[in-house]
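Please predict the structure of the following assembly.
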Amino acid sequence: AQSVTQLDSHVSVSEGTPVLLRCNYSSSYSPSLFWYVQHPNKGLQLLLKYTSAATLVKGINGFEAEFKKSETSFHLTKPSAHMSDAAEYFCVVSGYGQNFVFGPGTRLSVLP
Amino acid sequence: DTGVSQNPRHKITKRGQNVTFRCDPISEHNRLYWYRQTLGQGPEFLTYFQNEAQLEKSRLLSDRFSAERPKGSFSTLEIQRTEQGDSAMYLCASSSDGLYQETQYFGPGTRLLVL
């Protein structure tokens, strides 16, 4: 069985400061891991994915995430937040041929 | 636009009525997924097709729910005798086959409100 824990339901940062959204996973397989972003009234958009290649994954809009097997973590970071980053972020775990298991989400607020 | 499309975008219905949603995946994708998302939660898996074959159904998919993908292209999700608890966003996603878990591309969703 697979599961995802997103440790913060809401994160608030000031524009221009770093962003850290935490994700821990549980998987019986070698997992694939994804981060998706959901802006209000818009569809889910893929930010980045890890599929057993490089452990530091770079995504769109300056986001990146590091896969740490020993810590079963896949935290999402960005050096400098922008107002347009305000959205809901979902960490997702999956195994090959398996379905996506979504975390509960973290709402990111960016203050001017 | 070659992304995943869903229709309708919004549906309001009365309890007890039947509703049907349609999903058109990215044309070259042979996998299609349905999810349900309630307010403040992450999407939850409902069912999955490989071409026209429905390969997996979640326990969330009660007998009132049925999904089809008759020609391996578009898919429909029908809810019979709707209940207020069915109110949610219904999301469709598609992906290709591959050596790894392929990225799922999501549609904009159909928001259902059952009165």
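The CA atoms of residues 5 and 24 of chain B lie 5 Å apart. The radius of gyration of chain B is 13 Å.
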